[in-house]
Amino acid sequence: MQQKIIILDFGSQTTQLIARRLRELDTFCEILPYNKFPQGDKDVIGVILSGSPYSVYDPEAFKVDLTQFVGRLPVLGICYGAQYISYHNGGNVEPAGSREYGRQNLTTIHKECPLFHAFDDNSQVWMSHGDTITAIPTGAEVVASTESVLNAAYYCPDARLMGSQYEGHCPVMGVQFHPEVFHSVQGTQLLRNFVVDICGGNQDWSADNYIETTVRELREQIGSDRVILGLSGGVDSSVAAVLLNRAIGSQLTCIFVDHGMLRKNEFQDVMKDYECLGLNVIGVDASDKFLSDLEGVTEPEKKRKIIGRDFVEVFNAEAKKITDAKWLAQGTIYPDRIESLNITGKVIKSHHNVGGLPEEMHLSLCEPLKWLFKDEVRRVGRSLGMPEHLITRHPFPGPGLAVRILGAITREKVRILQDADDIYIRGLREYKVKLSGEEARRVLAAGVPADMVDGEIEVSLYDQIWQAGTILLSEVRSVGVMGDERTYENPVALRAVTSTDAMTADWAHLPYDFMAKVSTEIINKVKGVNRVCYDISSKPPATIEWE
Ligand code: XMP
């Protein structure tokens, strides 16, 4: 049995964070849309109701039938979730006098309540709501307050006290603050109290455990069939391939397409890595096709569409040669799949994945990493013995340098960008920073490989950031001077961001001496570039990639 917590998503931006926190507690959890509770799933040990952009009074507010799980399983409502439970169980919710937002301290805490076990006095929490609970559910008691929010948390030890419609005696509780966000200092403790003490979770989710279970399941699922997998050089597809290789060995054939817009020497380097890992890989150099189809195309979405289409064509042509293949494996990870409730429904950028294989091939989909977050994929990769440089590799967009060359793409521009980018990325890998105290602990907790010596760690800039890349502003030219010569060439922009999931990102505060060195080296060595800028935009409102 794989114990799990179900998080019902009412559309909050922080729902994924709840799942992240639970996984940090080595607890398996699944995010499902608010109306998709998996009735009859015996592995579920508790339920969390997320926040929502709606008020319980909004006519379009998301509604759920609480009798499906309240009483049968322990339930924790967060923000809207807490308000929803109150509103439907004899309590009351009203617009807050002023929007209750930001850091607050819990002035009263009932520490005998299991939800607040081991809490400190005045523990800081993060609030963000327009409505507030003015009366808690029947049968519950207030277990924490702040100066301005009396009903910051409530606890009902037995759902039957709330109403006879509930079958079962499990406890129900709600918090109006967000334990999942960083600013709720003991938020993880609260979630631990819920998962371990209240739901009886045994915290048995680990990389080794995942590998063992997944290898067994893959063998059962695939039997003696043949599987095709599209490799990209990135962490996800590489870990998926190694995991499958462990499960089914030579039944797996990998295809790695070079579209001509990878990083400098990347195709050759990665092919070597894959061979060392014992993978059966077919490398396809299709750069001529991609570059000729992209000739003269400047519009970002058009570039993406052409690359997506060409990729499917090239991949299919190879895949069709493996006539007895029954499965298509992909490195899809959990955040790619979460059916989050996109309230606006707007497409910002169309990210392409391998897809659209012809139906006549009758391939079934196999996604061995579909439950993992990015850092968990890395943990699994390490447990599988993969080399550190493959595991810690930054994310790289499918369309590659095509979305980092602003304007039309040519071979010469790709060469210029590859050279500039190579200097930047090598520089990031070589520049080491010493960290101590809280900063060092944070970096180690994120899985960055480093040894603690005398309370200090040394890590490269590369390993400290989420992603870095160089952008060629090929439609901009500026005047410069080199020796006695006037130059009139393109600038490049350097981008480096910190992030945990690419949904939001901050620009990395790289050291000035590093930037000075890289800028000089790029301008001196890369013909065609006479100016280097650094991108200091965060996401939102900017995105990580420029196109
Ligand atoms: P943005 O630019 O939307 O990027 O902030 C978020 C993350 O996604 C990566 N990215 C892509 N990945 N195909 C991919 O596989 C794509 O078309 C694509 N576009 C952006 C980007 O590098 C960042 O990690």
Can you walk me through this structure?
The chain has 547 residues and is an alpha/beta fold. It has three domains: 4-198, Rossmann fold; 207-391, Rossmann fold, CATH 3.40.50.620; 410-534, GMP Synthetase, Chain A, domain 3, CATH 3.30.300.10. It is 30% helix and 25% strand. The chain contains 15 helices and 22 strands. β1, α1 (15-24) and β2 form a beta-alpha-beta unit. The longest helix has 22 residues, at 300-321. The radius of gyration is 26 Å and the shape is globular. The site of xanthosine-5'-monophosphate has 14 residues, from loops.
Count every helix, treating DSSP H or I runs of 4 or more residues as helices.
15
| Fourth-tier CATH superfamily name of the largest domain | Class I glutamine amidotransferase (GATase) domain
CATH topology of the largest domain: Rossmann fold
Strand order of the largest sheet: 2-1-3-4-9-8-7-5-6
Residue fraction in strands: 15-25%
3D shape: globular
Q: Which hetero ligands occur in this complex? A: xanthosine-5'-monophosphate
Q: What does the largest sheet look like?
A: 9 strands, mixed
Q: Quick summary of this structure?
A:
Helices cover 30% and strands 25% of the residues.
Brief descriptors of the model:
15 helices, 3 domains, 30% helix, binds xanthosine-5'-monophosphate, five-stranded parallel beta sheet, Rossmann fold, nine-stranded mixed beta sheet, 547 residues, GMP Synthetase, Chain A, domain 3, globular
